Known about the structure:
With 218 residues, the chain is of the alpha/beta class. It is built from four helices and eleven strands; from the N terminus they run βαβββββααβββββα. Strands 1, 2, 6, 7, 8, 9, 10 and 11 form an eight-stranded mixed sheet that branches. It has a three-stranded mixed sheet with strand order 4-3-5, with no helix packed on it. β1 (2-9), α1 and β2 (34-39) form a beta-alpha-beta unit.
Amino acid sequence: MEWKITDGLISYDDAVAFMEARVAAIAAGDADECVWLLEHPPLYTAGTSAKIDDLTDPERFPVYQSKRGGEYTYHGPGQRVAYVMLDLNKRGRDVRKFVKQLETWVISSLAEFNVHGEVRNGRVGVWVRRDDKPLSATGEPAEDKIAAIGLRLRKWVSFHGISINVEPELDHFSGIVPCGITDHGVTSLVDLGLPVTMADLDAALQKTFDDAFESVNA
Length: 218
């Protein structure tokens, strides 16, 4: 499998074009699987379940229609995007298991920095409990989203993937209702008080990948 790490900001169109070509090559048996770590300039993407009312500031940044699953999300500098082009023909054609593996990968990577990430039924992505914030209106502990997940499959080869907030401008999320969820916030590793760099996170993602994808059973 190839690990591709790109410095600088990659346009969304260029990233999609690369993924389309690579996924076709993987499906044809002409290329290895690939995980591509990158950053985008500020932009919003609309997944296949996006509701137009959740785009609250449509003029703020470019908006891209994406064929990945999910709703609106933000990408921008300071956020690590990991596009996963993996062959589920070889890994078992089990979408639910694959999503769980991605969640486990994110949670294991965050644990490298002593951050306890969790998943929630009915809420896509990875969340952290914020005991330093006031309780919610329902009396529950506050929770913020730190990572998003959105996938597409073609011929059982995956593309799109995950994004983890290292040090993005959190105000940029305010132009959308992230993933359609209004009653929880968004955070990042630096917002949590951790001086984590993009290189630190990349090392954690590479370190935890194999265990995450091998340890999750159907």
